[in-house]
Amino acid sequence: MDLAKKNTLAWIAITLILFPILLLLGILMRTVQANGLSAAQEWFYPFMTLHGVGMVGVWYVGAMACAERIIAKYTKPSAAISTFAIVGTTIGVVLLLVCVLIGKFAAGWYFLYPLPFKGNWPVWAATTFLLSITVLGATWLIWSLDLLRAIAQKYSISKALGWHYIGGATEPDVPPAIIISTVSLLACVACLLAGVTVLVLFDAELIAGVRNDALLVKNLTFFFGHVLVNLSLYLGVAVIYDVLPQYCDRPWKANKIVAISWNSVLAIVFMAYFHHLYMDFVQPTTFQYLGQIASYMSSLPAAVVTIFGALALVFHAKMRWTLTSALFYLALMGWAIGGVGAVIDSTIAVNSKFHNTLWVPAHFHTYMLEGLVLMVLGYYYHFVQENAKLPESWGFHKVILSMIVVGGYGFLMMFYISGANSVPRRFATYPAEVAHGASYSGFAAVFATVFFMGLLLYAIETGKRWLNVRG
Amino acid sequence: MFAVKRLVGILLPWLLAIPTTAAIADEIMRTEAKGLYKSLPDIPVQIANGQTQPLSSFWKDKPVLLTLFYRRCSGSCSPFLMNLKSAVEDSGGLGDFYQVVALSFDPRDTLEDLQQSAATFKLDQSPDWHFAVADAASIAKIADTIGFWFKKIPTDQEQFDHPSMIAAIRDGKIVRVLVGTEIPHARMRDLIYEVKGVFVPFLAVPGKDTIFRCFKIDPKTGTLRLDWGILILMAPALLAALIGYFIFRRKPAP
């Protein structure tokens, strides 16, 4: 077996070990919010930090691993760099576990300045956290640059971004996955550089005592975090563009509309994060309006084009429904639903009411849990099944899918209802004014457990094939 | 060896987390935030003319700036009250938007002490300055609510160790607290805006040692001006474009 394939198997293993653990932490948090497990209350915020950073990281590397395989169909990424990415990510994860589980670091997944310096955790815990993010950021930056290098070996920038389609040409044929991956990886480089800048500013304060401007650091932090989450989704979408046609027996080709929509994403994705700063009164009003416009512009064209494209692809096609194709289809649905929630949330008039409620975790959990997660899980199953070629049971797969959908959307619905009923986010337990939040949390924990059981069944199905391929 | 020593020299203070000016500023900010939005206990107070009335009678009329002091203080009380008087005169609005209640936290203070205090600062004729006393239990409740503390100095039982503090009260709730003997113009303006019901942003302003910031703010007018930090915000995207250019610069293999 070649190294690239071994690496993909390693990523699958890492994801399927970390995801259930992080999911259990999420269930634990919702149980604490439901006034259960009172002994775990003091761990709520450290677990929230681990759950948040962990989930963002796991699904980013998951999407990158899938995209790497897709890119490898057309050109040749470095297997050595891919191995380096596994090692770097593992070191980063270990550092993260140390600072949270031993140091009780609890500044949240986006470690908003100056919180890392202000909490009830030791200085070394904050330092280790920043070191963890540094290791992860540097590793991922090198990985992204290598994938871009691999694309550049075969495609010029104008071809890789599909500019010839925009100019009216139909040749040469560039796979949509390459266009979307190029857009995503260029955005990835920018957001990781923003992350590096944030870390340098933090280090300057830690070591040299230079004070930072909270507004600047918050802007850079969301430039890093928000764009990273966005492009993880886009990489997942790139994979769907490439793999779903195999189950429909129809091609899904790039064209002028696809090229325009994804290039527009590259042009404006960097401004969409401004919607995280609506509450920041010192942010100029112009930026706030730009945030709303960019949020609409960066999500709608790509999502609408992709979803209509997928519907057209599936409509009246000789579909081969398997765990992969069904997960992809459901993933696009989750992306659309979560995307609508996100666009609603990025509307200033709405955000001024909903910003600190559970509506916010509602929308991002939707496009992560029922969007990106299903894209990556779908590809993982596709990869191992393609190589193992074991017999499949569609009936059993329907059970898995049902649990993932019922458990997932039940869990998400509790977030949406809570948000609409003013239940605040980031509260470990709820005061009397919003005590109804506890009931919703209890139901959410039950639904999440159903999702978890579905995931375990999925892991058994994928695990069997993984072992077969691994030999 | 020198490099190691230098590294230890840099890292040691940080690892030991020695309190710095910034840490003291943070402590003040924490104190100021501690009592925010709490309801003030409606204690009975006796004002300098001998009349006893509930504290709420003041805030029912108009918002209140409440401060605690004691007559025999040989330390910060007098300069602080003088500063407060100047700040109130500079900022305007007294009587129109708010009134000031100076409450003694020393149970030994009498009505005569209050009258003398008012006269000392030439405030005895002002209808919007009220000097008052209350019993020890009531004072303890007020102090606890706004985050004020006081304790006798062991070497001088006449004197108390205590901070200087103003609490802005609107409709019986603490809407802003200001700690410190000095009362900067900008902070006093914020305090008055807040009692008037105008939303005032509440955050730590970057210090003078902040190298990069997005904007500079004129504290008197509140006007924003772009600063160098904006360029740092744009740098990642520009740098990524540059890196993209270099990666794709070479012609792809046929």
Q: How does this model look, in words?
A:
- The complex is a heterodimer of chains A (471) and B (254).
- Chain A is built from 16 helices and no strands.
- Chain A is an all-alpha fold and 471 residues long.
- Chain A has one domain: Cytochrome C Oxidase, Chain A.
- In chain B, the strands form three sheets. In chain B, strands 2-1-5-4-3-8-9 form a seven-stranded mixed beta sheet, with helices on both faces. Chain B has a two-stranded antiparallel ribbon with strand order 6-7.
- Chain B folds into two domains: 176 residues, Glutaredoxin (3-Layer(aba) Sandwich), CATH 3.40.30.10; 49 residues, no CATH class.
- Chain B has 254 residues and is of the alpha+beta class.
- About 4% of the residues of chain B have low confidence.
- At the A-B interface, helix 5, helix 6, helix 8 and helix 9 of A face helix 1 and helix 8 of B.
CATH architecture of the largest domain in chain B: 3-Layer(aba) Sandwich
Provide the CATH architecture of chain A.
Up-down Bundle
Determine the strand fraction of chain A and express it as a percent band.
under 5%
Order of helices and strands of chain B: HHEEHEHEHEHEEEEHEEH
Oligomer: heterodimer
N- to C-terminal distance of chain A: 10 Å
Order of secondary-structure elements of chain A? HHHHHHHHHHHHHHHH
Tell me how many strands of chain B there are: 11
Pick out the low-confidence regions of chain B: 12-20
Please mark out the parts of chain A with pLDDT under 50 across 5 or more consecutive residues, or reply none: none
How many structural domains of chain A?
Answer: 1
Radius of gyration of chain B: 25 Å
The top level CATH class name of chain A: Mainly Alpha
Q: Averaged pLDDT of chain A, please?
A: 93
CATH fold topology of chain A:
Cytochrome C Oxidase, Chain A
Shape of chain B: elongated
- Mind summarizing the main beta sheet of chain A? none
Percentage of residues in helical conformation of chain A: over 70%
**Arithmetic mean of pLDDT of chain B:** 85
Shape of chain A: globular
